[in-house]
Automatic annotation (TrEMBL):
<feature type="transmembrane region" description="Helical">
    <location>
        <begin position="184"/>
        <end position="202"/>
    </location>
</feature>
<feature type="transmembrane region" description="Helical">
    <location>
        <begin position="97"/>
        <end position="119"/>
    </location>
</feature>
<dbReference type="Pfam" id="PF08551">
    <property type="entry name" value="DUF1751"/>
</dbReference>
<keyword id="KW-0812">Transmembrane</keyword>
<dbReference type="InterPro" id="IPR035952">
    <property type="entry name" value="Rhomboid-like_sf"/>
</dbReference>
<dbReference type="InterPro" id="IPR013861">
    <property type="entry name" value="TMEM115/Pdh1/Rbl19"/>
</dbReference>
<dbReference type="GO" id="GO:0005794">
    <property type="term" value="C:Golgi apparatus"/>
</dbReference>
<feature type="transmembrane region" description="Helical">
    <location>
        <begin position="125"/>
        <end position="148"/>
    </location>
</feature>
<feature type="region of interest" description="Disordered">
    <location>
        <begin position="254"/>
        <end position="278"/>
    </location>
</feature>
<feature type="transmembrane region" description="Helical">
    <location>
        <begin position="23"/>
        <end position="47"/>
    </location>
</feature>
<feature type="transmembrane region" description="Helical">
    <location>
        <begin position="160"/>
        <end position="178"/>
    </location>
</feature>
<dbReference type="GO" id="GO:0016020">
    <property type="term" value="C:membrane"/>
</dbReference>
<protein>
    <submittedName>
        <fullName>Rhomboid-like protein 19</fullName>
    </submittedName>
</protein>
<dbReference type="GO" id="GO:0006890">
    <property type="term" value="P:retrograde vesicle-mediated transport, Golgi to endoplasmic reticulum"/>
</dbReference>
<keyword id="KW-0472">Membrane</keyword>
<feature type="transmembrane region" description="Helical">
    <location>
        <begin position="67"/>
        <end position="85"/>
    </location>
</feature>
<keyword id="KW-1133">Transmembrane helix</keyword>
């Protein structure tokens, strides 16, 4: 994917994309709906005891923010991270990612709530309304980790590959001081894992005929510090076989495992190219924004000169 293709037609440098703006309107509209009609929460949010027969809340729950702080954070995260990810993935893949991660995150939360009820016999797990876009937002961070893992955040000097892990760690730490952490912690955890599963094994890669990303830089253990990886790797391989039916291996577009074939995703050259594309897209966007800001600063000066 060339720089020109990244710059053209998708609104990467001209502001937020139309798709992200439309999704932001959906989030704001969902929040407004449950504020105006509070009873709508019972039908739109994920309430495990009501999911059968109201199965549609597995989809709608992800787009319903019950608090003003949640909708503000979700809209800002969607607009800024979507402006980076959508031009690289393409609009169709961007929407597919959101739908898949949102649905399977809600499904995992539903199953977990039912399991916790049978273990603890606390009905709160069955009737607590769970909703929010934060499962997809943390999934966006996983996508950024995949594309530009070594890019540093300018102020904090933290590499992008650690964004999902830090967000989860902070959220879990804060949950001890927040009421009803079960309303959002499971969505963050499963949003991270489901987005990694999708990008690792399922996402079609336009630059090759393969699916997924088997590179070592994007392994499950890469979410953890180096000293924990010897412990995490064997556990991760067991779960990969259980959930995906195979160990970490490349598959073709038909889902067939490839034996005795070099893995493009694990090829250092291909992995370097992928990171360079992401880093180049980010650098060009920042340069374009600096240029736009400079032009904006010059306009008042030219207007003053014209008036004189």
């Amino acid at each position: 994917m060339s720089s020109a293709s990244l710059a053209g037609g998708t609104g990467l440098y001209g502001g937020f994309t139309k798709l992200c703006k439309g999704l932001a309107v959906v989030l704001v509209g969902g929040h407004a709906a449950v504020q105006i009609f509070p009873a709508a929460v019972a039908y739109l949010a994920l309430i495990p005891a009501r999911t059968i027969p109201f199965a549609w809340n597995l989809i709608t729950a992800g787009y319903i923010e019950q608090s003003i702080y949640g909708v503000i954070a979700s809209v800002i995260g969607l607009l800024f991270m979507g402006r980076f990810l959508e031009p690289i993935w393409g609009s169709r893949e961007f929407v597919k990612f959101i739908f898949v991660v949102n649905f399977f995150t809600s499904l995992c939360v539903f199953v977990t709530a039912i399991a916790l009820y049978y273990i603890s016999r606390e009905e709160n797990y069955l009737y607590m309304p769970v909703s929010g876009f934060h499962g997809v937002l943390v999934g966006f961070l996983v996508g950024i980790k995949q594309i530009i893992p070594d890019q540093e955040l300018p102020v904090l000097r933290i590499k992008a590959k650690w964004f999902p892990s830090i967000v989860l760690l902070v959220a879990i730490a804060v949950s001890y001081f927040m009421p009803e952490p079960a309303a959002y912690i499971p969505m963050l955890v499963f949003g991270t894992y489901m987005s990694w599963i999708y990008l690792r094994y399922i996402q079609r890669r336009p630059e090759t005929k393969f699916m997924g990303d088997p590179s070592d830089d994007f392994s499950f253990a890469s979410f953890f510090p180096e000293f924990l990886r010897p412990i995490i790797n064997p556990i991760a391989s067991v779960f990969a076989r259980m959930l995906c039916g195979r160990s970490d291996s490349m598959t073709d577009a038909h889902g067939d495992a490839l034996e005795d074939t070099p893995l493009p995703g694990s090829d250092p050259i291909e992995a370097t190219r992928r990171r360079e594309r992401g880093a180049r897209a980010l650098e060009e966007r920042l340069a374009a924004e600096r240029l736009a800001a400079a032009r904006t600063a010059e306009d008042p000066q030219s207007d003053a000169a014209a008036n004189v």
